[in-house]
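hiii, so i know i said id send this last week but things got crazy w the move. better late than never?? heres the sequnce for the chain we talked about at the cafe, plus the structure i predicted for it. fair warning i was half asleep when i ran it
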Amino acid sequence: MRRYRHEPRTGRAGFSVQLASANPDFFFHADLTLAWEEISPTPTHHDPQAVACDYVRGVAESVANKRPLNQAEIVEHRVNTLLGVPRDLKDETVRIAWGHAQIMADSADIADAIAERRRQRESRLKTEEQEREIARVEAFRYRVLSDPGMALAHSFMNNPGSFDEGAITRIEILARKAAVYDPQNAWVAIAHILQEFISELSPDARTEMISALPWWFARYRKSEFTQRLRKEMELRNIPLHLDETEES
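okay and structure toks below
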């Protein structure tokens, strides 16, 4: 049997507090009651009741701040589950004999909290939609810069009635401007110049010029391009004249 040098103190307490909910700036109202007793052979704390009240308040807060304001009953049941059995506080030599909580929330606050959560959800969904739209535009921008013909196809698909003889000219102007604003893709415009130059050559001159490309590929050690060029020429039944130096 435990012997005390003094009569151990016991007591009961009741107090009301506001408990923060999971809804920012919205609070539960809590009425808390408890019974406590000392468990030390000598008094070690000036105000053991304050220790007991602080513990009970902490338990209630830890449950409340994880729940939205419209779940007051759930919070109450959980808090009372935790406070319904005796608990010795290790460092303060105080035992909580029992605790009880009554948790409430104002109906107007609940309505406001639900409306605020709805606004936050709508704002989040709007932001996500904007991010998806930006990603879609960026992807389309990349496709247009790498293949200006995409812009022509997109324009015709979305505005078939506006497609006229000037549409191609407008797309070509757009492609040149895109190359200016995106220097990394300026080679697209240069490729169009080369394509236009080649298209104006006679078939023999065109074949002669293309046959000179393997020499440049070999000079920069890009022989794989020669093989690709050969395949393309074979598909189109265009002769490609290569000497031994060019093939090596």
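btw The two ends are 102 Å apart (CA to CA). thought thatd interest u
miss u guys!!
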